[in-house]
Amino acid sequence: MTEGSPNLFAWAALALFGPLMVVVFARLRPHAAAAWGMLGATLFLPEVIGFDPPYLPSLDKLSLASLWVGLGCAWTSARRLRAGLSWGTLGFFGLMAAGQLGTALTNPDALVTGAVVRPALSLYDGTTAVFKDALLVLAPFVLGRAMFRAEGERRELLRILVVAALVYSAFALFELRMSPQSHRLAYGYHPASFEMTLRGGGYRPTIFMITGLAVAMFFLAAAIISVVRARTRSGRTATALWLTAILVACKSTGAIVYGLFILPVLALLRRPVFAIPMLLGALVFTYPVARAAGVVPTRAITDVFMNVSEARALSLWFRFDNEDRLLARALERPWFGWGSYGRQRVFDPRTGDDTTVTDGHWIIVVGERGAVGYIGAFGLLLAPLFSIFRARRRFGSRAESQLAFGVAMIVAASAVDLLPNGLFSTLPYFFSGVLAGAVPSARTAAPRRATRGAVRAVAPAAVA
Questions:
Q1: What is the rounded CA–CA span in Å between residue 312 and residue 253?
Q2: What local confidence, expressed as pLDDT, does residue 448 receive?
C-alpha cells in the first residue's frame, strides 16, 4: 500500500531509462553496460508504478530493465545473446509457459464467496502471464548467462556490484539516521507502508526498493562477493568488513542469519565446497513436497527461534500456520494451481474476506501455478547449482573457482530466502544465469587432460 503520489520525476525516470540505456550501450562494452543496466534499474528506479500497454504486462522498473538491457545486448552482441538460450533454459521456461496456459485453461470458473466474486481465467490471462515471465524470469537469466561467460567479464560484473553497494551504503546510513525517506524525497511517495520500516527501536533502510528485506539481500550479495574478492586479492578486506557491517545494520534477521553462515564459510574454507549451495538448492526444490508430507519440523524450528526472540518465533509460527492452510488449498488443484486474482487464497465463506497471508514465494507459485509451474520456475533458478557442482573440477584456476563459488552462494541464499519471503527483484535469476555461464564445459577441460597425458607419454621416450 503506497503512501503519497508519484511525482513527474518518477514517471520521467521510467520513461528515460530506455534512452539512457542507448547511451550506456554506445559508450561501454556490452557486458559492462548490461551489468550497470540491470543493477542500476533495480537499485534506483521507482517502485510499484509502471506503464500499462494493452495486451502486455505492466512495464515497471524490473520489466523495463530486462526489456531495454535485452534490446541493448541484441543491438551490440546478438550472437552472444542467442548463445544464452540453451535447451535446458528453454525447457524450464517451456514448463513455465505450459503451466501458465494450463492454469488459464483449468480455471474457467468464477469463485463466489459471500458477496465477493473472483473472476474466471481466460487464455488472455495465460498469454499475458507468459509475457510477464519472459521479461521477469527468462530475460534476466539469459542476459546473465550470455553476457558474462568469460572470467574477465564476471570479474567486472562483481566489481560493479561491490561499487554499487558502496554507493548504496551511503543511502543506507542516511536512512538509518533520518528514516527511510529517499524514495519519497526523489519520487514523491513511499512504495509500501512506512510501518514496515520500523524495527528494533529504529529503522530498516528501504532506499529505492520495495522493502528492507530486498535491501538487506542485496547487501548480503555484495558482502559475499567482497569477501571472495578479498580472498582472491582483487578486493580489499576493509570493503568486506564495511559491507558486512551495513548488512547487520539493515536489521533484517533472515539476511543476517544467512550471512552468519555464508561469510565465515567463504572466508575460512581453503577450497570451494560446491556441495553446500547444491544441497541448499535441493532443500528448496523439494520443500513443497516435504511440507505436504509433514516432514518439515515446523514446531521444532519455532521453538529454536523462541529462545532467540519471542517476536521472531511468533512471526515464524504465523507464517507456518498460513502456509499449512494455503498448501491445503493448493492441493485441491495440484498440477496447474488456481491462477491470479488471489484465487489461491483462503476466504471466509460468508463474507468473502481473505483470511490468509502469503509471505513465501514458493507457496505463491504453488498456489497460483501448481506443480508444473513450480518445477519450471524453481528449476530454472536452481539448475545451475547442480551444473556447477558436476563441473567443479574443470575450473582453470582456484581464483576462478572461488568467484563461481561466491555467485553460487548468492543464488543459494536467494533461493532459501524465497521460502519465508517473496521475490522482490530479478537479481536472483540474473545471478543464476551468470552462474550458468560460469560452468566450465567438458570441451575446455579436455585439452588440459590431453596435454597432461601427452606429457606423461613423451617423458619415458625422452629418458630412453
A1: 9
A2: 43
